[in-house]
Design brief:
The protein is mainly β. The chain has one helix and twelve strands, in the order αββββββββββββ. Strand 11 and strand 12 form a beta hairpin.
Length: 201
C-alpha cells in the first residue's frame, strides 16, 4: 500500500471519530451532493435539509471498496457501526477493516448517531466465528470487549483513495463538519461514494 493510501486510510477512519472531548462535537452530515464549485459543497441531507459547506484546504477526499466477510480475521483492526438485535446482541450495520498503519486509532466503544440506538466500536478482532448466517466477532479494546454479529449481507469495506473529481451531483457523502458561531459549516474531509459503494457510517 502506498503512503498516500495509508494516509487516506487513517483519515477515513478519523472521519468516524470526531475531535477530542475538549473540543466542540462535530456536525456529521450524511446526504447527497447537489453541487460542488471547488470551494462550496451543496448537500441535501438525509433529513431533507439543503446545506452549504465551505471546503477548506488541504482537502482530503476518501471512499471505500468492498471486500469479503471472510477477510475479517483474528488480529484485524476494525471499526463497526452496530445496534442491538432482537436478542440484545449487537448486530453490525457495516464493518470497516483498516490497515496496520491505523491500528489503535479511535479505539473504544461509544454511542453513534446513525440511528438512535447505534454504537461505534474501533477494536481488535480477538475471534471470528463463521456460521451459515454470517460471522460473530469478539472485539477487544482498551477497557473492555464486545461481541458483534455480522450478517452475511452487511457491507465489509476497506478505505480507498478518492479525489475532488469524485464530488459530483448525485454522489452520496459523509462529512464531518465544523459549525461556526454564525451557523456556517466547513470541512477539510469528505467521504464520497465511488464505484457503487456509499459511505456506510
Amino acid at each position: 500500500m502506498t503512503l498516500r493510501c495509508k494516509l487516506l486510510a487513517v483519515l477515513a477512519l478519523l472521519v468516524s471519530l470526531g475531535p477530542a472531548s475538549a473540543q466542540a462535537p462535530p456536525t456529521r452530515i450524511r446526504g447527497t451532493i447537489t453541487a460542488f464549485d471547488g470551494t462550496t459543497l451543496a448537500v441535501t441531507s438525509h433529513e431533507g435539509q439543503a446545506l452549504r459547506i465551505t471546503v477548506t484546504n488541504p482537502l482530503t477526499v476518501s471512499s471505500f471498496k468492498r471486500i469479503a466477510l471472510t477477510e475479517i480475521v483474528p488480529g484485524s483492526y476494525v471499526g463497526t457501526t452496530a445496534r442491538p438485535g432482537p436478542d440484545g446482541e449487537l448486530q453490525a450495520i457495516e464493518v470497516r477493516v483498516f490497515p496496520e498503519s491505523a491500528r489503535g486509532a479511535g479505539e473504544g466503544h461509544r454511542p453513534w448517531d446513525l440511528t438512535p440506538d447505534s454504537t461505534m466500536t474501533n477494536a481488535n478482532v480477538e475471534a471470528a466465528v463463521q456460521d451459515n448466517s454470517g460471522r460473530e466477532l469478539t472485539l477487544a479494546y482498551n477497557g473492555g470487549s464486545v461481541k458483534v454479529r455480522v450478517p452475511a449481507d452487511v457491507p465489509v469495506l476497506v478505505p480507498s483513495p478518492a479525489s475532488a473529481a469524485d464530488l459530483k451531483p448525485g454522489a452520496a457523502v459523509f462529512v464531518t463538519a465544523t459549525r461556526a458561531a454564525d451557523g456556517s459549516l466547513s470541512t477539510a474531509r469528505i467521504t464520497v461514494s465511488k464505484d457503487g459503494v456509499a459511505p456506510p457510517m
